[in-house]
Amino acid sequence: MKRKENLPPLTAAKGFVYSAGMAKSAAPGKNKRTNPSTHARHYALAGSMLEASAAAAGLYLVATPIGNLRDITLRALETLAAVDVIACEDSRVTRKLTEHYGIATPLTSYHEHNAAEARPKLLARLAAGQSVALVSDAGTPLISDPGYKLVRAAAEAGHAIVALPGASATLAAVSVAGLPTDRFFFEGFLPPKQAARQKRIAALGGIPATLVLFETGPRIAEALADLAAGLGAREAAVCRELTKLHEETRRGTLDALARDYTQGAETRGEFAIVIAPPREKEPRTDEVDDLLRRALARGSVKDAVGEVALATGRPRREVYQRALSLAKDAGDAR
Fold first, then answer.
1. What count of other Cβ atoms lies within 10 Å of the Cβ of residue 62?
2. Could you report the per-residue pLDDT of 110-167, keeping only the tens digit for each?
3. Same domain, yes or no, for 193 and 160?
């Protein structure tokens, strides 16, 4: 990067080359650069205009802000300025970002409705040795968008693919929800029709993980009502307008949250719903007794109690009392 002001230099991440030519992960001799874009490669930062050298040939997956334009990495800005073209879902949305940061890179549309037609054109650019940045309207590409087909095709053709991580509505919602984060399942949007939505909720009910869903304002109340009916009174968090001026997170049980939005809670904006995993079912008494009988046959009462308490999560005192009762019954039976 060529610096026009006395600012700290930006260090290239491993695998990113700040000059025209081959990306490190591409095969030798492939993607000879032809017909590169001639746009000005620069971006504005803190009142200074910074220049970026042409990016190496390859596909760059660039995370963009989910609401607050300042939630973008320095590496993302430099890459968006350095590539030959930016493939985006909606050019009107992406142009707000590029204009805000003084980025002049040409935009081209790539979304679910034109992907079949646009994908070969982007692959042809890559084959010609050009650099392409793929962005979504908000957040990390390929999360709830059609980009994976482009990535798969680029990988099959041997083109370099570089990820530039950053903002993600999914991770932002999980982080503020206050629910278990060791395992979570991203569902995306539920079906808009109630019958299909209820069927999908029933399928999600047994997943032993925190659930993350997206929803629209007009459907949030009915979606929460169906979730409460299908999943029970699980803990949940509803995140609205994350990172934006009117950001809000409501926490409670699904039924309580459903009442909130039925009774007039704000429904304008974009929503993420985070739902706690199902509680593990406690084993029945007869199941505990069966485990104890098998454990007692192998060892002492103390060892059996420790083994079964650990396996079932039941209190040791409770398991001990059951063990004594079983031992007494066995003695009486003799």
1. 26
2. 999 999 999 999 999 999 999 999 999 999 998 877 789 999 999 999 999 999 999 9
3. no
Residues 203 and 319 in one domain: no
Range of the domain at 79: 42-167
Tokens 């007039």 -> residue? 264
DSSP 212-252: EEEEEGGGHHHHHHHHHHHH-S-EEEEEESTTSTT-EEEEE
Q: From the DSSP assignment, how many helices (H) and strands (E) are in the chain?
A: 11, 12
Interval 46-84: pLDDT, tens: 999 999 999 999 999 999 999 999 999 999 999 999 999
Read off the DSSP letter of residue 161.
E
- Long-range contacts of residues 42-47, Cβ cutoff 8 Å, at least 24 apart: 42/81, 42/102, 42/103, 42/104, 43/77, 43/78, 43/80, 43/81, 43/101, 43/102, 43/103, 44/101, 44/102, 45/7, 45/74, 45/77, 45/101, 46/7
176 and 161 within one domain? no
Residue from 95, 23, 11, 10 nearest 58 by CA: 23
Asked whether residue 248 falls in the same domain as residue 211, the answer is: yes
